[in-house]
Prior knowledge:
three-stranded mixed beta sheet, 5 strands
Amino acid sequence: MKVSDILRVKGSTLYTVTPDEPLSRAIEIMADKDIGSLVIMDKGELVGMLTFREVILCIDKRGGVVADSKVRAAMDEHPRTCNSEADLDEVRRIMLESHARYLPVMDGRVLMGVISFYDVAKAVVESQNFENRMLKAYISDSRGVEEQSTGPQL
């Protein structure tokens, strides 16, 4: 399974802010939209990611106050990324090694979306469930063919 498969199911809604917007506005968007991350864009370019992790670290560093902080003060300026053709095993490895819960999906310099650790886990579970159903169907069909070829057991 590839990242593009997740994006196709997930949809293409993206929430972005600029690095110079107030951090309080970014927090408001994240809370209002019930999302864990925002993509930070500047002049059409990805310049960072903001997750609740970065927000909490920034607030802690400033003594529990957001005040007039800008997104730039909290954002990760060098987020790990992947492309839409990346295999889920590779994406899981990247996320685990870097402790990233969110990855921007880039095709060249174009932002295609963001995938979360939840998105990846859900896709893996759904894939495994599908494989299990196929194996069970195959086993059932095999038994039916075997019983037909050998006749009834006495």
